[in-house]
Amino acid sequence: MADPLMLWISALLVVVMWAAALSALLLKSHLAAVVSTSLLSLGLSLLFVLLRAPDVALTEGVVGAGLSSLILALALIRLGLVGGSPREREVLSETVGDKPVTERGSQQ
Amino acid sequence: MGVVGDLFLLFGALFCALGALGLVRMPDVYNRIQAGTKAVTLGLLSLLVGVAFHQPAWIPKLLVIALFVLLTNPVGSTTLARAFLRSGIEPWKRGDKR
Amino acid sequence: MSTEWLPLVVALPLLVAFLLQPLAHWLGVRAERPSPVLYGLSLMTIAATLWITLQLGSDVIAQPLSVTMGGFNTPVGINLYLDGLAYLLLLATQLALLLLWPAGAAVRTHVLLLVLAASSMGLALSGDLFNLYVFYELLAVATFGLIAASPGRAAPLVSFRYLLLSGMGSVLALSGIALIYSHSGSLNLADLSMLAASGEGSLPIAAFLLILVGFGVKAELFAVNSWVPEVYSVTSSRFAALLAGVVSKLAVVMIVRILLLLFPQPEATDPLLLLGILGLVSGELAAWRSNDFRRMLAYSSIGQLGMIFIAFSLSLELGLFAGLALSFHHMVVKPGLFLLLQQPLSRWRVVLLILFALSLVGVPPLPGFWAKLALLTGLVEVGGWLNGVAAVTFLVATVVEAGYLFRIVQRYYQEERPIAGSTSSTVAAVESPWGWEGGVALMLGGVLLAVTLTINPVTEQLQQIALQSGDRERLISTITVSEVE
Amino acid sequence: MTLAIILYTGAIGLLVIGLAGVVMSSHLFRMLLGLVIAEAGANLLLILAGYRWGGAAPIWQAGQFPTTMVDPVPQAMVLTAIVIGVGVQALAIALLIRHRHYSGTLQRTGGLNQLQADLDREAGVRHTRSSDAPTLNPLTEVEHVH
Amino acid sequence: MELALLDMLGIFAVGTVILSLLVGEHVRGGQQLSLLYLLQLVIVSFMVSSSESTQFSSALTLELQGVTMSWRLDGLGLYFALITVATALFVSVYMVGAWGAHYRKQGGSLPLLHFALSLNVLTMLLLLASGDLLSLFIGWELASWSAFLLMALAGGTALKSALRYLVYAMAGAMMVFGAIAILVVEAGSFQFAAVNSALVQLEAETSLLLLLLVVAGFGVKMGLLPFHLWQASAYAETPGPGAAFLGAISSRLGLFAILLVLFKVAGGGWLNQSLAGVSSQTLLAWVAVATIIFPTFTAMRQNDARELLAWHGIGQGGYMLLGIAMMDPLGAAGGLLHVFNHATYQAALFLAVSAVIYRTGSSDLNHLGGLVVRMPLTFVTMLVGIIGLAGLPPTNGFVSKWLVYRSLLEQGEVLLFVGAVVGTLGTILSVYKLIHNSFLGSLRLEHQPIREVPWTMWLPMLLLSLIILLSGIFPGVPLQWVSAALLSIGLPVPEFNLGGVVAEGGSLDMRIISGVLFAGFAMAALIFYGMGGRSRRVNPLDNYAGGHFLYAANRYHYSNNFYAGLMHLIKPWYRGLFQRIEQAVVRLLAVAAGLVQGIYLQAQAGRMALVVTVLLLWWGSYVGQGGGGL
Amino acid sequence: MSREHRSMAWTPLLFSGGLAFMLFSLFMAVPFGEPLMRVGGMIQQTDGELGAANLVTAVVLGYRALDTLGELAILFAASTSVGLILTGVKQRTVSVECEELGELFEQASTLLLPLLIMVGFYIITHGHLTPGGGFQGGVIIAVALFLPTLAGRGAALLNHRLIQQVEGGAGALFILLGVAALLQGESFLQPWLPVGEIGALFSAGTLPLLYLAVGIKVGAELAALLTHLSTNVPSPEVPR
């Protein structure tokens, strides 16, 4: 019933989405994880187009792939999770200035 | 008209494909960015032109899209490149491992 | 007043919530300072919804009413359904909010509380599955914010853990809704209830189970209730009272509504019974073992909710009545306990505490006894081994409950003795004024006693409501009547 | 049929991967990502519930609504769900930021141990005994000459 | 609504409760309360002595939840009510004067104590007057909780004991609650008659099990054997007069309820039924004997006078149940009569110990002694009391025990008889310890200056002693009440006269026995004084032990580690079996609680949710194959 | 407190697999691609009574407008909560220094801002005709408003006070449009302006107005939310 093109595209998208989901959970780098979720949303958005849901696709694209990733990325910065190299961390800690308060916490 | 439009479309698709190829082939991140930006920008624009030939009524919207692409693609790639540079990734020199 | 005005109960608090922050700017109110004006405005809003409810709801027990939103007929549009149960819940929510509204709160807290109010009322009223989900999420989000805003370093993590659990629940509930929708093509409760006869297989039960687990998070259902002890011990006693007293009941009643209307098959009640037993056991035992009073009350709340689930699983008129009675009883008692435990215990406060504790344990002739009696006789009457297990568990749990609740008295002696060392007159001098919390607790104690004295009419009324809310035909006819209009 | 299997596999897979991520991650941020993934899966499930073979998008085309179109209601529901999801996500991140500000860690267990300690301290509980022994036990504390 | 006599009683009881809060603050205010108790006693006595009616109904009926609740007092209830109100009267008089002032000075709340006492009386009367299962259960719960109030008053260790009591009492109440729920659902009504017919219709074994459950539940309150651990400490820690009240009558309510359900509701025949080959009568009798023996010997080991008495209270309950379990005229009468007798001497003893505490500040049997020279009236009370407790003539304790023994022998229950006698031996030994260690021997230095207690305290004690003796000599008076009680629950009534019981195998006439006894005393006195004997005062220091003269610094009073040899002998029997069982249950519960708490303390809460969801879904797919709605 | 056993770490995987299997077997029992469309079919048969060319919009703003109100409130509550939670967390602005991002980025953001806002409004105002609507457009507007913040010049444009007023006003507009129907004796949230011709820009009665309110509100809210997450702009109520 379904035309084979749709079949193959959706299979591809599903594989991509699975991979994105798994890598979002398994990759060491938090930044990569966020990018993976973005990719997942993008795939989902395309799938929505395929499923004749343009409204939802647009929303998923804008909200899921765009806004949500933006929020997550901002969170990465504020949580100090971004940056693998020492240099990057140094820059970030200069910029963000969000030092954990463990010392104070352990005193109380 | 239709033929010209088709030609533009083909041209655009070709450049997009080339851009994609560049992503794979290029040796380092800066080169890949450049391939992904330059070729794809051109490809996209020609795709837009091709569409414009097919659907003249859409021209205003297409113009806006073109403007958007022109604005964001270079800026985005530049910013990315700067970010990479700042985070300490050295540009590739001939003879380096890929 | 036309019944069409009913949605204002939801819309009005939202409207005020939207406008509160701009208003604060206009008034030049600082966010962190208490503002009598905004406090008054919020209270007036709730009072207005109370007024609307009272205007509309005087005879809903005789004739429930359904209001369609946007003038669309029911299966297509959303409808609000006001029957006796919803009416009581509305009143309880509004009164609880009026009584427990924190006076010295920041502007944003007022806003979130208003949202909380709107969503609670929406939950009580809504007659549409997905709309219930939306209001449930709204309630959740407002709750997270309010929890996280409470003082203490633990609050954000507690709120986050609650959020994750609730999010998991939402995902499951959403897939349950998807299952129902793909199975029936409709979302309206009355409509689904009409369709309820035409399904088969494990699909409806599975859908119900998913929804049960999803919406059970707020109802403190077993296995999705690990947020309870943490949350209740970080929030202010007023908010804990609100959550334990009203919000959990709203979620329970929502689940029960869905159960009664959509899943009449007997298999659907068994998991409720099972989870109720587990909740009862785990809650009461953990309460017995817990080492501070806030968490003890929290665990005890889990146990009580388990009891309520057991009652509702009977799904008879009797079970429904017992469940409602237990719910409303818990709604009065648990806030009282939370409010009183916050303060140093003086002699009269401890008397009040003991009153609440006695009722919770089920000492006649306090209302708790009648509710428990109804539950026990219901369990025995329905029979079956699982119900037998439930009955035994219930009895043992009551013993455990008595065992830990009265440690509060111990605390009183611990607190009082050093003071009262010399003469008894110092005790009277130390007796601090009641304060607002104490006053509310006193009021709740008064309610408890009043119900004790008027137990007959109260239970009669409750029985009628139980009868009504278990009446599927009536729901369908009420909603189709409004379809014609 | 194949398409159905593929799509449902995708949707349910996402949902379950997400839930497993929430349950098994040892880092709070990854738990949140797991929730986001699970929500995506649930949304896809809802959309699938409204898909129709050969249906068109429910939009006025050529002077009329398509005769076979996909169900618009689940689409509206998913719209709502997506927006709800992003709101919850933002809130969660704010909570994480606040939590890290207080405790300096985003690890699951470390935070939890600290949480219990915090709760105990706020409740005024001192751990003098082993935590395995029930404290304040009304039955065992009464000693008798027997 | 016309006020019936019972309503008057109720109004007075309620009035006492209210008044206790108003006037309790003043030490003298208790007098009004005593007056009210007296009024109640008058009413109850009137009802007891009334010949025209055996049952007094209350005009008040409550229709609650479709259940008609009614109250009425019949013979059984009247008998217990009489004891209750009378004890309350004595106790309240004791509390009024010096003791009350003393208590208040110690930091206790006198109004609260008065309130608790009067509340106990009220709730007990409610229980005694219950006319259906619902009012029975309500009365039961109320009485239990007001007893808790009385026990918890002192705080500290008393509160711990009270909490322990609470757990036991709730466990018992819940057993009863469960059984009642089943019965009521079967019968469709709370009325005794309906329940009775439902019991008949049920399977015999089910009925019996239910009844035994009820007996066990009510038995908790009277300290039947596996459930006795709570009682001693809880009663002992209660403020003096309160302990007297509780020890005298409160725990007997369990017996009352058992009698009511077993005989009045169920019809009595059930005891002859057997369950798994054991006749329930035998079962009950052996439980009763165990309840006699174990606590009695435990009592012997106590070094605190109040604990000792409280442990005896448990043991004496065994005699009552044992007698009634025999279900013959003598046994039943003996068992029931023992309730009255025990109440009298237990109250007297507790009051006496309380008087000792009032003066010396201690009830530690290792640190008392020789008080007889300072507190002779208290000594007399205690002497009479322990004679009663030991069951020796001419006190009333002898009568009831004699009846029970006779019944046992007549029924041929030799083993039970031996058990009971062993219990009595233990009683005699331990009460001797009580009086010896506190009143005999040499007076301690620090106790030199004390005096006899004021009259408000010794008057009730002496009156109680008088009652013990009089009702011992003329047991016909209480037997009259007992027979009315037996009649009302359908048990056989022995033939009796003023002096005792007339039975085929041999009658008992206490008048003769006492006459002989007193004649003997008189003769002894005659001989003693006739022979010119005079008591000679000896300086307590004029004494030596082991070749050493004793000085003021180390007075010799062999109270410490009393009965060391006997204790050594029976030690293997006392390894705290029940305590260990209790602890094991608590541990088990604690482990279970720890496990379930672990669920809530998990680092990853969602794990449990996931597991439960999957299990539920699996179950759903399993169940759902059968088809269903939606 | 928390005891985690390494050996039990894999059990959730097992149960996840179980859940997947259960859900899969459940959903495969439902016929795919042939929805019952009980409600959907009814909506299709109304044949555009609301005048919206996009039926999803008709559902979102007409038939299920209460859901949308709830959804708005959720976003609102979330952004309010974020504000409540994050005030007082000391932090300098996140945005990287201008020179670090480059002149190009700064200039581009200035240029993009009007473009994006225009696109956003376009999507909002055509919500009843084409895919898209208030939420999508609102998000775009929010991101547009956030761009300058990213470029390091946020405070000028993102006036909190203004944003809050706009947000509150838009939310109030949504509700008041519903109440207006009530005042005319109809139901709450009933569309009441003339429907017009399907497919025209000015059609579908109050739906575009509602979407406009939604869009503005979402845009303002999300912009405020993003700013809260990115910086710690001292809340305007408390000049510090």
Shape call of chain D: elongated
Low-confidence stretches of chain D: 128-146
* Rg of chain D computed from alpha carbons, rounded to a whole number of angstroms: 25 Å
Strand content of chain D: under 5%
CATH fold-level topology of chain D: Helix Hairpins
Helix content of chain F: 55-70%
Largest interface: C-E, 89 and 63 residues
Rg for CA atoms of chain F: 23 Å
Q: Give me the count of strands of chain F.
A: 0
- The residue ranges of chain F in which pLDDT falls below 50 over 5 or more consecutive positions are 92-99, 232-240
Largest sheet of chain D: none
Percent of sequence in beta strands of chain F: under 5%
Oligomer: heterohexamer
Helix/strand/pairing category of chain D: mainly alpha
**How many helix segments of chain D?**
4
The major β-sheet of chain F equals:
none
Mean pLDDT reading of chain D? 79
Question: Could you explain how this protein is built, in words?
Answer:
The complex is a heterohexamer of chains A (108), B (98), C (485), D (146), E (630) and F (240). Chain C is mainly α and 485 residues long. Chain C has 21 helices and 2 strands. Chain C has one domain (3-480). Chain C has a two-stranded antiparallel ribbon with strand order 1-2. The relative contact order of chain C is 0.09. The relative contact order of chain E is 0.08. Chain E has helices at residues 5-23, 30-49, 75-96, 98-105, 110-128, 133-152, 157-187, 192-201, 204-222, 229-237, 240-250, 252-265, 280-301, 305-326, 329-360, 376-390, 396-411, 414-439, 455-473, 476-488, 510-530, 564-570, 577-601, 605-624; strands at 56-64, 67-73, 274-275, 278-279, 495-497, 500-502, 508-509, 544-545, 548-549. Among the domains of chain E are: 277-493 and 555-574, no CATH class; 581-624, no CATH class. Chain F is an all-alpha fold and 240 residues long. Chain F has one domain. Chain F has 10 helices and no strands. Chain F has helices spanning 11-28, 38-45, 55-63, 65-86, 98-101, 103-125, 134-150, 154-157, 160-183, 207-230. The model of chain F is unreliable at 92-99 and 232-240 (pLDDT under 50). Chains C and E meet through helix 6, helix 8, helix 9, helix 11 and helix 15 of C and helix 6, helix 7, helix 23 and helix 24 of E.
Main traits of this protein?
D: mainly alpha, Helix Hairpins, 4 helices, 64% helix, disordered C terminus, F: 240 residues, mainly alpha
Task: Please summarize what this structure is.
The complex is a heterohexamer of chains A (108), B (98), C (485), D (146), E (630) and F (240). Helices cover 81% and strands 0% of the residues of chain A.
Write the layout of secondary structure elements.
The complex is a heterohexamer of chains A (108), B (98), C (485), D (146), E (630) and F (240).
Chain A: H1 4-26, H2 30-50, H3 54-79, H4 86-96, H5 102-107
Helix pairs in contact in A: 1-2, 2-3
Chain B: H1 2-25, H2 29-54, H3 59-86
Chain E: H1 5-23, H2 30-49, E1 56-64, E2 67-73, H3 75-96, H4 98-105, H5 110-128, H6 133-152, H7 157-187, H8 192-201, H9 204-222, H10 229-237, H11 240-250, H12 252-265, E3 274-275, E4 278-279, H13 280-301, H14 305-326, H15 329-360, H16 376-390, H17 396-411, H18 414-439, H19 455-473, H20 476-488, E5 495-497, E6 500-502, E7 508-509, H21 510-530, E8 544-545, E9 548-549, H22 564-570, H23 577-601, H24 605-624
Antiparallel strand pairs in E: 1-2, 3-4, 5-6, 6-7, 8-9
Helix pairs in contact in E: 1-2, 1-5, 2-3, 3-5, 3-11, 3-15, 3-19, 3-20, 5-6, 6-7, 6-11, 7-8, 7-9, 7-10, 9-12, 10-14, 11-15, 13-14, 13-18, 14-15, 14-17, 14-18, 15-16, 15-17, 15-19, 15-20, 16-18, 16-19, 17-18, 17-19
